[in-house]
Amino acid sequence: DAMVIQNPRYQVTQFGKPVTLSCSQTLNHNVMYWYQQKSSQAPKLLFHYYDKDFNNEADTPDNFQSRRPNTSFCFLDIRSPGLGDAAMYLCATSRARLSSTDTQYFGPGTRLTVL
Amino acid sequence: GEDVEQSLFLSVREGDSSVINCTYTDSSSTYLYWYKQEPGAGLQLLTYIFSNMDMKQDQRLTVLLNKKDKHLSLRIADTQTGDSAIYFCAESKNTGGFKTIFGAGTRLFVKA
Description:
The complex is a heterodimer. Chain A is an all-beta fold. Helices cover 0% and strands 50% of the residues of chain A. Chain A is built from no helices and eleven strands. Chain A has strands spanning 4-7, 10-13, 19-25, 31-37, 44-50, 53-56, 64-67, 73-78, 87-94, 105-106, 110-114. In chain A, strands 2, 4, 5, 6, 9, 10 and 11 form a seven-stranded mixed beta sheet that branches. Chain A has a four-stranded antiparallel beta sheet with strand order 1-3-8-7, with no helix packed on it. In chain B, a hairpin with a 7-residue loop joins β9 and β10. The termini of chain B are far apart. The chains are: A mainly beta, B mainly beta.
């Protein structure tokens, strides 16, 4: 039944040690998004893919990269995690551009802890 | 600029109505959304309203929009303990883009 799946749900990494978070979807949606959500803050869009086209938000740090090898999967790579990167990372999908009929479907999130 | 603001906490008794408020700054926003996030889960879309509407009702949920004041509210009638969650207000534009701007969320506590 799960439509947007994120693995792992909890990830612990060490300061500076690269980490990859995974997202998969069974909806066959064209667009996949990654958001960062810090405690008691709004989810913040990092980037999105429309099919294979990658779109980075202007204020997303270079430390964050993404890969989308196929329609179903999208990865978030954090090259050198800092303490400030500890957050919940949310993956979302939409069929197309956002509108009244094309809204976002969110995964449960991966909570990243940086030691 | 783009900014969505919400109060952080709301506490109500079971059976009462809850009203969660939100203000936004971007007058060109066309779609306004309410999402619910339960512990350990992702955001779930509850309802949305077009900017050319004043009100939308969906079962226990009523959304009111005051465009002049850029104020959006979500009323939950007969609030239940299962309604305890974080509620996010969000906006996006009619350009059919990809960006949704979220508020920081209102944590609703429902006391039995």
